[in-house]
Amino acid sequence: MNVQFKKGALELCVLVFTLKKDRYGYELVHSISDKIQIAEGTVYPLLRRLTNEGYFATYLAESKEGPPRKYYQLTKAGREYLEQLVQEWQQFSASVNEIIEEGMD
Amino acid sequence: MTKQQFLNELNRLLVQIPEGERKDILSDYESHIDSAIENGKTEEEAVADLGTPKTIADELGVFVPTDKISGSKKEATTNVGPNIFAFLGMLLFNLIFIIGPVVGIAGAFIGLYAAAFACLITPIGFIINLFTHDTPILLAFFFILATFSFGYLFLLLTNFLAKWFLKIIHWYWKLNVKIVKGGY
Predict the structure, then answer these.
(1) Domain extents for chain A?
(2) Is residue A32 less than 8 Å (CB to CB) from chain B?
(3) Chain B within 8 Å of A25 (Cβ-Cβ)?
(4) Are residues B63 and B106 part of one domain?
(5) What secondary structure letter does DSSP report for A1?
(6) Could you tell me which residues come within 8 angstroms of residue B155 by beta carbon, excluding any fewer than 6 positions away?
(7) What is the count of structural domains for chain B?
(8) Within this chain, do residues B154 and B88 fall inside the same structural domain, yes or no?
(9) Residue among A42, A47, A58 with most chain B CBs within 10 A, to mutate
(10) Under an 8 A CB cutoff, do A45 and B60 touch?
């Protein structure tokens, strides 16, 4: 799959995964790599960038199994950004689907 | 690769990132690997799923010089061989677009040098003329001075232009070599 394309979609996915519930890194990465084939390591730079841009706030919380985990929480700005991305994505994918349907007739 | 090898390699590639931030990045990966192992993966698998440290450094926007990548020697030797397609492409391009103008300009330089040389030797003709004809000496003197100075200036100018021309050719040659070697 086209790399830039995948990156855009990946961004959308991590934001969506944190909408209902704060997630820690592994959980977030794993839920994506379960469905989309990626090098898991490339998600962390993305998380870092989204955090720097103010879309995520992070905090540490204790875990039962071991050392504390870093959780990602969607900020207000992140929520707005996510809404914008979802809207763009839906318009985009609707157009692509339309083109496919017309072309495959 | 073991977890420690992975972290060491990544740490090495990220040297230009300030230590605090670098430690933070490394700890993200360390806890990721730990979590993956807790969830039933082997250490090898957990590390392999992350991708290479180089990919991660690229993703972080860190410029990594080739010599910093471990195992880059192998890549280097496979990449360094001249690219036959680049070579053929450049050859064709040069034959079609470059050779003609270059030969033309070189010819023009030969003409310019010949003209300058002609101006420089004209005074000799005048001097002979002085002996064989009844030319006024002052007129002849000015003619000699004028043609000689003109010829000399002309030569200097041509030399200057020729130097630039050679420089450009030299630069273009190096560019060609670079392209063929796969520098671009």
Answers:
(1) 3-104
(2) no
(3) yes
(4) no
(5) -
(6) B113, B116, B117, B120
(7) 2
(8) yes
(9) A42
(10) yes
Same domain, B128 and B148: yes
DSSP single-letter state for residue A65: S
**pLDDT of B39-59, one tens digit each?**
999 999 999 999 999 999 988
Q: Which of B31, B36, B59 sits opposite A42 (nearest CB)?
A: B59
pLDDT digits (tens, 9 = 90+) for B72-98: 444 444 444 567 777 888 888 888 888
- Choose the CATH number for A3-104 among 3.90.460.10, 3.30.930.10, 1.10.10.10, 1.20.1180.10: 1.10.10.10
Q: Which domain holds residue B31?
A: 3-79
| ipTM entry | 0.87
- Chain B residues near residue A47 by CB distance under 8 angstroms: 28
